[in-house]
Specification:
The protein is mainly beta and 261 residues long. It has a single domain, classed as Lipocalin, CATH 2.40.128. The protein is built from two helices and 23 strands. The protein has helices spanning 4-15, 216-225; strands at 24-25, 35-42, 49-55, 58-63, 70-74, 81-86, 93-99, 102-107, 112-117, 123-128, 137-139, 143-147, 152-157, 163-168, 170-171, 174-175, 179-185, 188-193, 198-202, 209-214, 232-238, 243-248, 253-259. The chain has a five-stranded antiparallel β-sheet with strand order 1-2-23-22-21, covered by helices on one side. A four-stranded antiparallel β-sheet has the order 3-4-5-6, with no helix packed on it. It has a four-stranded antiparallel β-sheet with strand order 7-8-9-10, with no helix packed on it. β3 (49-55) and β4 form a beta hairpin. The protein is globular, with a radius of gyration of 17 Å. It starts with a helix and ends with a strand.
């Protein structure tokens, strides 16, 4: 598998020097974050995406469905799984993140998480949690950060996996429920909100939403060409090129997106 960072540096940066994609959001409201689509990649249309992350130049994805949940190292160029962990049928897989060569994964309602070695995919341990449910997951390089389907985001010590603090996500002073997939980008949390086509930029100190990315036009285009596609979900960030990869559950495509502000 070609490493993702080299692929993005050579392909995405070159492609973005040409004519920008028409699929871009103009900043029409004060909190909308402008972006442009610089490239698309194939995505497994059977993948019910729960988590997406980039680690050491490689793309990893977690999925969750009844009896068919997995984590995989994914080829960006084909969308196919190069290396894969399949969960026991009794678990519904959810978000995942990677820190210090360990993959951390949540499950939906069983309140059990798993830790794997990122190279061998060998399961190292299990852990339990007491918050509502397991949904999204990311890391700031120190803490494991998780969402639970409510407005709450929990910060876990990466060694003990015990909660150290939590924040409540708010937009214009109103709590926002169903915060889902998470990604840490330049000191802020970015989050999918389930059943919406927005990605939220969240201040981790206060929980306040300080910006939003509107992907309604992209989601509409995917739904028109692929009626089986489900909701927008999945954010991965490639720091060297400042590029986001986004996709959705059962989407046949993944978008590489460049922030414009």
């Amino acid at each position: 598998m070609k490493i993702l960072s080299l692929f993005l540096l050579s392909a995405i940066l070159l492609s973005s020097c040409g004519t920008p994609s028409k699929d871009k959001e103009e900043k029409t409201n004060t909190d909308l974050i402008a972006y442009e689509v610089v490239r698309t990649f194939p995505h497994d249309p059977s993948a019910f995406t729960e988590g997406l992350t980039i680690y050491k130049g490689k793309l990893f994805e977690s999925t969750g469905r009844e009896k068919t949940s997995w984590i995989a190292e994914v080829s960006l160029s084909t969308g196919k799984q190069d290396k894969k962990i399949e969960l026991d049928e009794k678990y519904f897989g959810e978000g995942m993140t990677i820190l210090n060569n360990k993959i951390y994964q949540l499950t939906y309602t069983t309140k059990i998480g798993f830790v794997y070695d990122v190279n061998s995919f060998k399961k190292l341990s299990e852990f339990t949690y007491n918050f509502n449910e397991g949904w999204g997951m990311t890391t700031d390089g120190k803490n494991i950060i998780v969402s639970d389907g409510t407005s709450k985001i929990h910060f876990l010590d990466s060694v003990t996996l015990k909660e150290t603090k939590s924040i409540s996500v708010k937009y214009q002073n109103n709590p926002l429920k169903e915060i889902n997939e998470l990604e840490w980008i330049d000191g802020f949390l970015y989050a999918n909100q389930w059943q919406t086509n927005y990605i939220l930029k969240i201040d981790p100190a206060t929980g306040n939403v300080v910006g939003r990315m509107d992907f309604n036009s992209i989601a509409k285009k995917v739904a028109e060409s692929y009626p089986e596609a489900d909701v927008l979900n999945g954010i991965a960030y490639e720091a060297k090129t400042k590029t986001l990869l986004i996709t959705g559950k059962l989407w046949p495509v993944m978008y590489a997106v460049r922030l414009k502000n």
